[in-house]
Amino acid sequence: MTNSHPLYINGQWVTGDTSITNVNPSDLSDVIGEFDQASAQQTNEAISAAQKGFAQWSKSGLEQRYKILMAIGDQLIARQEELGELLSREEGKPLAEGKGEVYRSGQFFHYYAAEVLRQIDERADSVRPGVEIDIRREPLGVVGVISPWNFPMATAVWKIAPALAFGNAVVFKPANLVPASAWALAEIISKQDLPAGTFNLVMGSGGETGETLINSPHVQAITFTGSLEVGRRVASATVGNLVKCQLEMGSKNALIVLDDADLDLAVEAAFNGAYSGSGQKCTASSRLIVTDAVHDEFVAKLKARLEQAKVGHALEAGVQIGPIADKRQLDSNLAWIERAKADGATLAFGGSRVETTTDGYYMAPALFTGTTNEMAINRDEVFGPIACVIRVADYETALATLNDTQYGLTAGIITNSLKLASDFKARAQTGCVMVNLPTAGTDYHVPFGGRKNSSFGPREQGQYAREFYTVVKTCYVRA
Fold it and tell me: What mean pLDDT, rounded, does the chain reach?
């Protein structure tokens, strides 16, 4: 990868008017590269190019699409070591997680390559004699993809792969904090035999590049993952042009630990769910709702687990918790620590900056006890390695506490009771439910999404993705 990284528009690498510097949060002296920024004019040029690319790509044969998506997936998997290291350098997640994300991204392309060949239309009998009805799905047109910084490749891919599989053209705007992974993905896609304009990369700020994309009347759909605040702005902008919109936004996930729980399993589920990826996951379990009988033992075991966790450089062997993604997020996390203490929560472990051999944005994972569900830290999304224990009397109180939130993405429970597990699956007001598993961790072949303010629009992933990336046409034919 060269130090300068241009935009990719209409099948060509194009220089932007300005650029930003991408720095490794594990080591601020490690400059990953300079990444060009798309102006409003260049973003509009990308949209125009996508319209032309769509005209050709939407008519492409199924085997052509299949082979191209398979080839992209093959490249991602073959280069998982190299690209996983790059991803971990720029985002800060431990190397094993970075390589795993790249590998999963390759699997997404393979899955949707297969979906290309599974596009089978429906037919129906008419109420009128001699009339046949065919129900088919067709591509939308230009899809704007806006992805977040916490999964710089996987989240982008689970949007781009189905968009291309179903015959759409893509204008991709990655988060400005993590442009290197997006650029590497674009480079792989650029080497495939796609019509010019079918895929475009416009790196840039949300205020200029993002606003231009979501306000364009020439885009048929916007898929966005990010904060609730920005998601509402996206929805507001797209409704003016009646643009199809898919939003994955905030969360405040909870993990319930009941009296009959296997506490060793509960501690690992809580640790992985709350602290992996430095807690910078929309599926992270930031609320740990624990019943009276096991509360003290669970807290003691979780503290012991945190004491063993190694915080450090994302590429260093044995590191389980890497740095926070940038200074702004670190400052926000530390401010939340102080606010929670001021509100009466007890800081049982961590919560302070950590010094290591390199200058980076390190923070000890934090565990609060003595919290209530009314505290601000248990109401708002924090997006850091911070978990709060909420003590409750029983299952019913735990479930009511879990559901008492504006969000509804994932929810988990640790129990040996089949009855309570079944009840929990039915009554948890979330889009994803985990039983005896961490709240973080989903599969690519089944639907993903939430309820309430966590999600808006059709589900992502699996066969459910076609609901967003296609439009239904009903055809009546008299022979």
Answer: 97
Find how far residue 229's CA is from the centre of its chain: 16
Contacts of residue 129, defined as CB under 8 A and 6 or more positions apart, other chains included, come to: none
Choose among 444, 455, 445, 411: nearest CA to 429: 411
- From the list 1, 9, 2, the residue with the least C-alpha distance to 203 is 9
Task: Please tell me which residue in 282, 381, 388, 460 is annotated as part of the active site.
Answer: 282
Give catalytic status of residue 187 as yes or no: no
Q: How far apart (Å, rounded) are the C-alpha atoms in residues 83 and 91? A: 12
Reported as a single tens digit per residue, the pLDDT across 207-247 is 999 999 999 999 999 999 999 999 999 999 999 999 999 99
Q: Assess whether pLDDT exceeds 70 at residue 2.
A: no
Residue 478, exposed/middle/buried by CB under 10 A (0-12, 13-18, 19+)? exposed
Q: How many CB atoms within 10 Å of residue 415?
A: 22
Map residue 345 onto helix, strand or coil.
coil
Instruction: Give yes or no: 282 in active site.
Output: yes
Model's pTM, two decimal places?
0.96
Give the three-state DSSP class for 245: strand
Can you say how many angstroms the Cα of residue 379 is from the centroid of all Cα atoms in its chain?
21
Catalytic residue among 248, 381, 388, 460: 248
Tokens 């989903």, residue? 442
pLDDT, average across residues 406-424: 98
